[in-house]
């Protein structure tokens, strides 16, 4: 992992305005932000680890544990919520055996709740990476998983 972190950070000069691009580079290379990467970024820039960690935790785009190969996002915005988005989320959680914000043990899927995917006419909506599944009902949760990974 140290080699991957070094590779990701190799093009940076160590300026304070590079914190977010450095975090992005490491996450793009490794898939998440391990503690060692936070420490390395802090050392390169010369700021406390807490400042780097504080920046990373402010943005929802950064992850601190390994993610699944595919990301399932369940929209819980107003239209999706009113049309049963929470029930679809609960059905996915049951099917996958994980809660929102977690990753399956085989690292195939990560499950997230999001506030809006911009497809209100299709509510409730689930996105698996770039694939959109709309007008869902809870009993379709397994079908979404099967379409996303035939081995499910």
Tally of discrete structural domains? 2
Output the strand order for the largest sheet: 2-1-3-4
Query: What is the distance, rounded to the nearest whole angstrom, between the alpha carbons of the first and last residues?
Result: 30 Å
CATH class of the largest domain: Alpha Beta
Number of strand segments: 4
- CATH superfamily caption of the largest domain: Glutaredoxin
From the coordinates shown, what is the CATH architecture of the largest domain? 3-Layer(aba) Sandwich
How much helix is in the residues?
A: 40-55%
The averaged pLDDT comes out at: 95
Shape: elongated
Strand-helix topology:
Elements: H1 2-9, H2 19-30, H3 35-45, H4 49-58, E1 70-75, H5 78-82, H6 85-96, E2 109-114, E3 126-128, E4 131-133, H7 141-148
Parallel strand pairs: 1-2
Antiparallel strand pairs: 1-3, 3-4
Helix pairs in contact: 1-2, 2-3, 3-4
Describe what you observe in this structure.
This protein is of the alpha+beta class and 152 residues long. The protein has 7 helices and 4 strands. It has helices at 2-9, 19-30, 35-45, 49-58, 78-82, 85-96, 141-148, and strands at residues 70-75, 109-114, 126-128, 131-133. It has 2 domains: 2-58, Arc Repressor Mutant, subunit A (Orthogonal Bundle); 70-148, 3-Layer(aba) Sandwich (Glutaredoxin), CATH 3.40.30.10. Strands 2-1-3-4 form a 4-stranded mixed β-sheet, covered by helices on one side. The model has no long low-confidence stretch (mean pLDDT 95).
What labels describe this entry?
7 helices, 152 residues, Glutaredoxin, 4-stranded mixed beta sheet, Arc Repressor Mutant, subunit A, 43% helix
């Amino acid at each position: 992992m140290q080699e991957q972190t070094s590779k990701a950070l190799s093009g940076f000069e160590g300026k304070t305005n590079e914190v977010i691009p450095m975090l992005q580079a490491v996450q793009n290379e490794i898939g998440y932000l391990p503690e060692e990467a936070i420490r390395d970024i802090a050392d390169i820039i010369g700021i406390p680890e807490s400042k780097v960690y504080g920046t990373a935790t402010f943005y929802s785009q950064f992850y601190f544990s390994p993610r699944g190969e595919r990301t399932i996002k369940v929209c819980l915005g107003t239209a999706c919520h009113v049309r049963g988005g929470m029930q679809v989320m609960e059905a996915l959680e049951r099917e996958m055996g994980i809660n929102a914000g977690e990753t399956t043990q085989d690292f195939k899927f990560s499950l997230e709740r999001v506030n809006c995917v911009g497809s209100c006419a299709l509510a409730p909506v689930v996105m698996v990476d770039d694939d959109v599944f709309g007008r869902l009902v809870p009993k379709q949760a397994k079908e979404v998983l099967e379409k996303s990974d035939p081995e499910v």
